[in-house]
């Protein structure tokens, strides 16, 4: 049959109603964004917001940073090829040079693999590599983890509700408790404080959980009776993000590193969200001494454009050519934007700045909400911050009240009214999450704190 006229679309259906019901953010953030600069975005009605979502942490330099815009414009002006798979280009070479210059010392003589441009694909690649090199299939992951939405990375992820509709995922994955300082599977934490700690030592709040979680790792990997055959890899986030902003204590990192090394199990640090300065250090894993065998990076390293890589120690370079492939492993625009972002984060000392600003920001959040029993804990590292909200009237297990997701949703809605975009996450989605660009100004953070305080107050007053 030959079509003489194109088929007509039902013109009454607005384009966005054609999107799948899996669409998620607009349900909680009903805005149509038309402009962005730095940490600010504007909607189609002319209202401006401070963007503490920042592409889920992908926009380390915010919207349209001049260095990134210039790098993109340069590619367009020079007519460089836009998509080159893994063929060499000067832009790709420059990206590799910029990244290797700043990697943790343990990986500086490692190898880089460009993956399909999502964090999930890079985690898949890391797992495939560890399985190939060790000849083992097992994987160790942690409760509360988030590693992506493919069927392999979902198997590693903690959130059960995302897996339960799907049936069997990647087999031979074992989850152990992550050492959280507030709501711990080990019960009450002797030194946990309602308003939490952001320190790196692991001896602050959560020290006991850290010790117990570490012992479980040692047992799982070292005891013949643990029931877990020696795994190919352990996969962990140095600060859990989607799981509710839980920093990994340095004490636990040391145990995880030594236990995996003893078991011949590779250690994969998923720094998709934490990488490139977000947590107040260039690499969150380096700051806690994790020394991974494989580092997984995406989000910020593409300067807001899609890019994902793994970097692994040279001894793991045992793959056949083409063992992990994908069409979009050579996006020139992303490589140029990424190289410019890495350079700028380092040049402007944005990691150190994130540390300073993050500490002050968390203190200010604690102050604005001081005495409010609905604040469970304020925690985070650098500019990766979360506030867990609780229902103080609920029966407290081990002294910790039930997490209150509807309160967090109401605060998120109210903050939008006050001109701030935030995300929620964690158990019951009760953690209000702040991931502003690393270039956010102190004045903008002050406004975020005040919007948070006003949102909490108005929810109490019943106006949500
Ligand atoms: C730690 C971590 N790993 C992996 C992913 C998955 O990345 P992507 O959404 O690009 O697949 C995310 C996304 O938020 C993440 O935070």
UniProtKB/TrEMBL annotation:
Pathway field: Amine and polyamine biosynthesis; ectoine biosynthesis; L-ectoine from L-aspartate 4-semialdehyde: step 1/3
SUPFAM superfamilies: PLP-dependent transferases (SSF53383)
Keywords: Aminotransferase, Pyridoxal phosphate, Transferase
Keyword Transferase: yes
Listed InterPro entries: Aminotrans_3, Aminotrans_3_PPA_site, Dat, PyrdxlP-dep_Trfase, PyrdxlP-dep_Trfase_major, PyrdxlP-dep_Trfase_small
EC class of the enzyme, as a word: transferase
Biased composition (Gly residues): 195-207
GO MF: diaminobutyrate-2-oxoglutarate transaminase activity; pyridoxal phosphate binding
Family of this protein: Belongs to the class-III pyridoxal-phosphate-dependent aminotransferase family.
Region of interest called Disordered, as start-end residue ranges on this chain: 1-24, 180-207
Enzyme Commission number(s) from the entry: 2.6.1.76
Pfam families: Aminotran_3 (PF00202)
Cofactor dependency: pyridoxal 5'-phosphate
Protein name (record): Diaminobutyrate--2-oxoglutarate transaminase
């Amino acid at each position: 049959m030959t079509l003489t006229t194109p088929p007509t679309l039902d013109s009454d259906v607005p384009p966005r109603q054609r999107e799948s019901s899996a669409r998620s953010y607009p349900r909680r953030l009903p805005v149509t964004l038309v402009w962005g600069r730095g940490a600010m975005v504007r909607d189609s009605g002319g209202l401006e917001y401070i963007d503490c979502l920042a592409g889920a942490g992908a926009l380390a330099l915010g919207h349209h940073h001049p260095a990134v815009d210039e790098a993109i414009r340069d590619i367009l002006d020079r007519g460089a090829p836009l998509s080159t798979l893994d063929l060499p280009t000067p832009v790709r070479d420059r990206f590799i040079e910029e990244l290797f210059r700043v990697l943790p010392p343990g990986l500086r003589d490692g190898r880089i693999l460009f993956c399909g441009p999502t964090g999930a694909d890079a985690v898949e690649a890391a797992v495939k590599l560890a399985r190939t090199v060790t000849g083992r299939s097992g994987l160790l992951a942690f409760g509360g983890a988030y590693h992506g939405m493919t069927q392999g990375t979902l198997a590693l992820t903690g959130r059960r509700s995302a897996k339960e509709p799907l049936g069997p995922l990647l087999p031979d994955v074992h989850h152990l408790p992550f050492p959280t300082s507030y709501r711990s599977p080990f019960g009450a934490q002797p030194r946990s404080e309602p308003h939490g700690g952001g320190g790196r030592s692991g001896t602050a709040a959560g020290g006991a959980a850290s010790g117990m979680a570490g012992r479980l790792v040692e047992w799982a990997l070292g005891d013949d009776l643990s029931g877990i055959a020696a795994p190919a890899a352990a996969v962990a986030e140095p600060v859990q993000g989607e799981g509710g902003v839980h920093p990994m204590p340095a004490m636990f990192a040391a145990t995880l590193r030594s236990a995996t090394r003893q078991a011949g199990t590779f250690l994969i640090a998923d720094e998709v969200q934490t990488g490139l300065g977000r947590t107040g250090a260039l690499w969150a894993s380096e700051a806690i001494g994790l020394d991974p065998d494989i580092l997984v990076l995406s989000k910020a390293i593409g300067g807001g454009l899609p890019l994902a890589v793994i970097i692994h120690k040279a001894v793991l370079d045992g793959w056949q050519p083409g063992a992990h492939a994908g069409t979009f492993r050579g996006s020139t625009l992303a490589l140029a934007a990424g190289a410019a972002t890495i350079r700028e984060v380092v040049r402007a000392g944005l990691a150190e700045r994130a540390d300073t600003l993050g500490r002050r920001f968390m203190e200010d959040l604690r102050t604005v909400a001081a005495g409010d029993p609905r604040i469970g804990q304020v925690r985070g590292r650098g500019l990766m911050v979360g506030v867990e909200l609780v229902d103080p009237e609920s029966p407290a297990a081990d002294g910790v009240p039930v997490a209150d997701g509807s309160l967090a949703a109401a605060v998120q809605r109210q903050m939008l009214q006050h001109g701030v975009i935030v995300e929620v996450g964690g158990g019951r989605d009760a953690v209000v999450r702040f991931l502003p660009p690393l270039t956010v100004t102190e004045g903008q953070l002050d406004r975020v704190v005040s919007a948070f305080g006003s949102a909490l107050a108005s929810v109490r007053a019943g106006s949500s």
